[in-house]
């Protein structure tokens, strides 16, 4: 499990997030009604995205996505940021060339974030926008009092990046633990093989389904997913709906053997199996009794 993100922040930001800060003050911060500088505003929204109150997180998510490109660029020009915050900016605003250029200039940028920005460049056509739904992340417990961001002695002081924490965010698995649902969906749709391997196991169906819709996913990955026995019903439905994948014999065979495959689909694929595999299903204790019965019937018909 990854540790809470620890950053040093200006006093103006801390005023909105200290333990015991009233809900109405945090909501005001989440809505951007602060009069803070661009850099402070970005830091505040990042901290509030980890708030314990779902209402604060939801409003923060809306404000984060709606940040003006000029504000983001000005913030990035004003100093260093924690790798986790930079990754969140890349997820929300990495499709903007000026923002992407500034993000890539940060030496502390995590490797996973650089890959994300590279995928933004190659995967998104001009004028094209992602159509994923913004869902407030209710899986994060926020920043506990003991891990509350420390207040800088000087409001202009840059956040301190602990060396060990910087290394932690080079791990995609650790980074995944900090992402909200909408961010995970985006990574599922655009991420590389390692991201797909992590996110296909996510408990949220929107996230795991996004992995299946990733245009770079391969048939060998799909086969591994089916054989793992863990995919949810929606993932199985999407796999069965892909006409190219079900042309693959090993994939059809694995679908028959996975109990989460819709029975109608499994029976349809059973009719395409060779006699050796049919004989195996006719004696198998690892598939549905309906599959066993149908396999026996098919074998009898072949012998007539």
List low-confidence stretches.
123-170
What share of residues is helical?
55-70%
Largest sheet, in brief, is: 2 strands, parallel
> How many strand units?
2
Radius of gyration: 24 Å
| Helix and strand pattern | EHHHHHHHHEHHHHHHHHHHH
Strand content: under 5%
If strands are numbered along the chain, what order do they take across the biggest sheet?
1-2
Can you count the helices? 19
- Domain tally: 2
Structural class: mainly alpha
User: Distance between termini?
Assistant: 60 Å
Mean pLDDT: 79
Structure description:
Helix 1 runs parallel beside helix 3 (38-48), helix 2 runs parallel beside helix 4 and helix 13 packs parallel to helix 15. A two-stranded parallel sheet has the order 1-2. It has 304 residues and is mostly helical. It has 2 domains: 1-191, no CATH class; 218-304, no CATH class. The chain is elongated, with a radius of gyration of 24 Å. The longest helix is centred in the last third of the chain and has 15 residues, at 289-303. The protein contains 19 helices and 2 strands. The chain has helices at 11-17, 23-30, 38-48, 54-66, 69-77, 83-93, 97-104, 111-123, 163-168, 172-176, 181-190, 193-199, 205-212, 219-227, 233-241, 249-257, 263-270, 275-282, 289-303, and strands at 8-9, 150-151.
